[in-house]
Amino acid sequence: MDNLAIISGEGRLPDLIYQEMIRQGVKTWAFYPQNISVKTSDNVNKVIFDLFDLENLFLKLRERKIKNVVFAGKITRLNSEHPRPEDSNNIFFKEIYPVLQSSDDIVLRKIGNIFEAHGFTIKGVIKLLPSSLASEGVLTREKPSLMEGKDVKKAEFYHNILSKADIGQSLVVSNGLCLAIETLPGTDAMLDFVKTVKSKVSLDYNANTGLLYKAPKPNQDIRFDVPVIGETTLRKVKEANLRGIALRKNCVILLEKQKIIQLADELSLFIVNI
Asked: Does the N-terminal or the C-terminal CB of the chain have fewer CB atoms within 10 Å?
């Protein structure tokens, strides 16, 4: 593969991609926005850039003879009130600024289209980390019960409906009822809400029941926004008194897959891919 740039956000995903690419002999750089403070491995070629100056970012990419880019990690939604520069041809403010109040999918597709229009090829995380995918079947010692199997089907049903409204990748279902859906704050914030709610509602829903369901939306371009499960999410599932996690097969990345499966076993949680 030609030289690669990881347009990086918060979390472990950019670093995992970097280490895998280095292992494969691909010359790689991790590009981080200047407003993000992250800890990376010592061997990372790290480049800082200004999100509001894409022209300079493209220059830095070309200086390193980079043609391939991958988007990975969480970047907080950009502030549409950022002062506009005097240069009316600034790419960010000319092309991205007008859609900042749209959905994440629209904003990310717009950014991807701009990169491609300037000669760069977008690589998907799934193509670069295929071994981290959640494949079909139960991955853990714990298995979903008959009732939880029904909850999985119900979660799929709810997810398909909500996706049409471009709402979240995740939801929580218990005993056939949807307890929460993911919104802008994200999956972990939703699980914090579930923890609070389950402690205040009837005994049936405060019991060790229910599951987290996570999958991309039907029209979501997972080159830019791939669903991810990490250690923090697993621990929050446990704290919310849920029984496990159901994922769409071959569409969700497990960060350090074997460690995630081991942790799920330690927490007596199931992970099932459907």
From this structure: N
